[in-house]
Amino acid sequence: MNVQADVCIVGCGPAGAFLGYLLAKKGISTVLIERSSGKNREFRGEHINAETEFLLKEHKLFEKIEEQGILKMSKVEFFAGKQLVKTITPSLNEDHVGIHVPQSHLLKTVVQESKHYKNYRLLLNTTVTELVQDEKGFYTGVRANQDGKEFIIKCSIIVGADGRFSTVRKLANLPVKIMNHGYDVLWTKIPAPFGWEPTTRMLLVNGHQLALFTQTGGFIQIGWNIKDGSFAALKKEPFLSFLEPLIETLPELKEIALKHLHSWNNFVCLNVHSSHCETWVKDGLVIIGDAAHTMTPTGAIGINCAMKDAHVLAPTLIKALDEKNSSAERLSIFEESRRAEIEKQQEMQIEEEKTFSENFVQHAL
């Protein structure tokens, strides 16, 4: 089969799904490609801020997502050892310091709303194998594989929203600079004990940095910062010793942690890095979200940056299609409107990582 569309979006994560919806409801013929089946996907970046909440409300999506289940954080707490040393509460006129929105709930809602439009199509279990160019070098489509069958999607603009290891970025030969931050993160999840408040808790215990994010459905996501590249050596150490900083600081989690965390196999190791692309656009092609600018877990801003990318890019694409101008120069309007903010946020992440311990200086143990 061959497919024709105005825009082909590669990657049905938050940015790709949101962009697909924004384009479809404006009458743009849109094909969204997702390499997975769309089921049982694991996510870690699931906390949105007030700005993203506003965007979802602006596009009449927030209430529908809320029906699926969300959880508003009441505060952020910093613990030095067992001592609470700092608390951040909602700003004036806000009722949270972040919202846990399971990506499964977000994606299900956005995709369902997108399917109301006849000009929208979602292709699951589909991977991109090649980018197609015309004689002038403009990107005009993708060669894809779905369940072993190859076909071509012809389009006016390709959007790479396919994450930190973007296939589109690689195939388009967009130069990227990777910056390591000196640490990796071990992620796991345990049930929350009865009465556990919807909070984000940051811990500093004997030099160990831990973050606990309360989740919808009665769970706590836990992230341990470890030295980059150290997981292989760490797995040779006693497992229970690794849990001690968590249990010592929050003894109310001891029974649950010991019940659900039995070995290193209960953890997923995320190699932490950020990235900087020389450009996000080529003739007929643009990349967004982690494909264009990978963020670190610091501040949980990655999903928010990606969603805003989609919000800003949509009108740029609509105008480019209306003008029949998909040149890099035309698409760069999007990059110019977002790059400064993204680079500033990446700099802020680096600064926050360097000064993390200062949150605990006043009562350091």
Percent range of helical residues: 25-40%
Multimeric state of these chains?
single chain
Largest sheet: 7 strands, mixed
CATH architecture of the domain at 2-51 and 102-177 and 275-354: 3-Layer(bba) Sandwich
SS strand fraction: 25-35%
Task: Summarize the helix and strand pattern as letters.
Answer: EEHEEHHEEEEHEEEEEHEEEEHHHEEEHH
Question: Between the first and last Cα atoms, what is the distance in angstroms?
Answer: 65 Å
What would you say this structure looks like, in words?
The protein is an alpha/beta fold and 365 residues long. 31% of the residues lie in helices and 31% in strands. It has ten helices and 20 strands. Strand 10 (126-133) and strand 11 (139-146) form a beta hairpin. Helix 1 (14-24) runs parallel beside helix 4. The longest helix is centred in the last third of the chain and has 27 residues, at 328-354. It is globular and about 65 Å long. It starts with a strand and ends in an 11-residue tail after the last helix.
